[in-house]
Each structure stands twice: as structure tokens, then as C-alpha cells.
Amino acid sequence: MELAGNTVLVTGGGAGIGLALAGRFIGAGSRVIVCGRREDKLQAARDKFPSLEVRVCDLSVASERRSLFEWIKADFPELNVLVNNAGIQHRINLWEADAGWDHYHREIQTNLEAPIHLCLLFLPFLAGKRGAAIVNVSSGLAFTPGAFAPIYSATKAGLHSFTMSLRHQAAGKNVGVVEIAPPAVNTDLGGAGLHTFGVPLDEFADAV
């Protein structure tokens, strides 16, 4: 897909891979909107890229996903690319998981429910637009799960499976479907300092 000439929504775009991808789209001349849970990170992202449009949104909540879609329809009717990037990762030992179901469920809601829901909302909106595309960011852990993050690995495997089905059903519909499956990348996913061994963020984003 072309990076230039688009209007793009990147979920979880306030930092990490999402912000790096947003920067590549902006550098190519596209208009970019990012959403995320933390206003401070979104403001820092806008400080780095002044043209960035931002919105605070907790994608683990279905009503906020619907509000995001309605806002995009009203304010950015030309949007033609959705990048489902938002994700959280908890490193847990299942034998010692005592944080309560809501804590673990949020990981499933953010990583799997949200991109599926957003695809269902945006597909009719994107249909027929020039260069329309959905980009789902899964993970290398979708293929080789990490026992240190069992729920995260399962959600990314689910997103990979969903993306394959979506691509099959999108054949002939003029909406491209792309999956990005990052390896370990040096970001703060799961906590600061946990991925320092990973691929440098800029190197990964340039390769994508």
C-alpha cells in the first residue's frame, strides 16, 4: 500500500510502534489521527508531530469504540486507512494470577475485541474509497507463543486468524487487508526496559 495521500487512523498511536508508523505516514504526506488512553502521551506525540490529530479513547470499552467511529465519520469523512495497533501486554504466571478477571479481560478487550469491533464498524465506511485499507498489527507471538505472556500471545494468534479470514472475504471489495507481525521491538510494551534486546524502533518502522 502507498504511504502517501491517505487519511489514516492509528489506534494506540501515542507511543511505540503506533507512533512510529504514524510518523512514517506523516513523512510521506498523509494526514494522521491517533487515539490512545493517555492524554500525556498523545500530547507528547503531537509535540513531536504538530500536524497530528489526537483523541483520548479507551478501546477496551465498546461505547468508546463506537464514539471514536462516529467522530471519525463526522470530522474525517475522507479517512481511508485504519491501523489497528493498540495493544497491552501483561507478563503473568497463570498459577499465580490473582489480579482479578477485569484486569486480564482488559487485555483481551484491547488486543482482540477492539480490532474486530473496529473492523466491523469501519468496513462499510471504507468500502469504495481510493486506497482503502485495514492494517492489523499482530505479533511474532501469534505464531510462536511466549509463555511469559500467555493471554497476549493468545489474543495476537486470534487477531492473526481473524485477519486471514478478513483478507479472504475482502477479495474483490476494494479494501486492502494487511497484517504486520512485529518481532521483539525495543518499546515499552509490557513495561519499561523489557524489550531493550529487541529491534530498534526506527529500524523496524523503516522496514515496514
Write the layout of secondary structure elements.
Elements: E1 7-11, H1 16-27, E2 31-36, H2 39-48, E3 53-56, H3 62-75, E4 81-84, H4 101-126, E5 133-137, H5 150-169, E6 176-180, H6 201-207
Helix pairs in contact: 1-6, 3-4, 4-5
Structure description:
With 208 residues, the chain is an alpha/beta fold. It has a single domain, classed as NAD(P)-binding Rossmann-like Domain (Rossmann fold, 3-Layer(aba) Sandwich), CATH 3.40.50. It is 43% helix and 14% strand. The protein has helices at 16-27, 39-48, 62-75, 101-126, 150-169, 201-207, and strands at 7-11, 31-36, 53-56, 81-84, 133-137, 176-180. Strands 3-2-1-4-5-6 form a 6-stranded parallel beta sheet, with helices on both faces. Strand 1 (7-11), helix 1 (16-27) and strand 2 form a beta-alpha-beta unit. The longest helix is centred in the middle third of the chain and has 26 residues, at 101-126. The radius of gyration is 16 Å and the shape is globular. It starts with 6 loop residues before the first strand and ends with a helix.
Quick summary:
The chain is an alpha/beta fold and 208 residues long. Helix content is 43%, strand content 14%.
Architecture (CATH level 2) name: 3-Layer(aba) Sandwich
Number of strands: 6
Q: Give helix % range.
A: 40-55%
**What is the approximate shape?**
globular
Please, what is the CATH homologous superfamily? NAD(P)-binding Rossmann-like Domain
Per CATH, the class reads Alpha Beta
The sequence of SSEs as H and E is EHEHEHEHEHEH
Strand order of the largest sheet: 3-2-1-4-5-6
In what range is the share of β-strand residues? 5-15%
Return Rg in Å: 16 Å
Largest sheet: 6 strands, parallel
Q: How large is the count of helical segments? A: 6
User: Roughly how many Å apart are the termini?
Assistant: 11 Å
Q: Which runs of at least 5 residues are low in confidence (pLDDT < 50)?
A: none
The averaged pLDDT comes out at 91
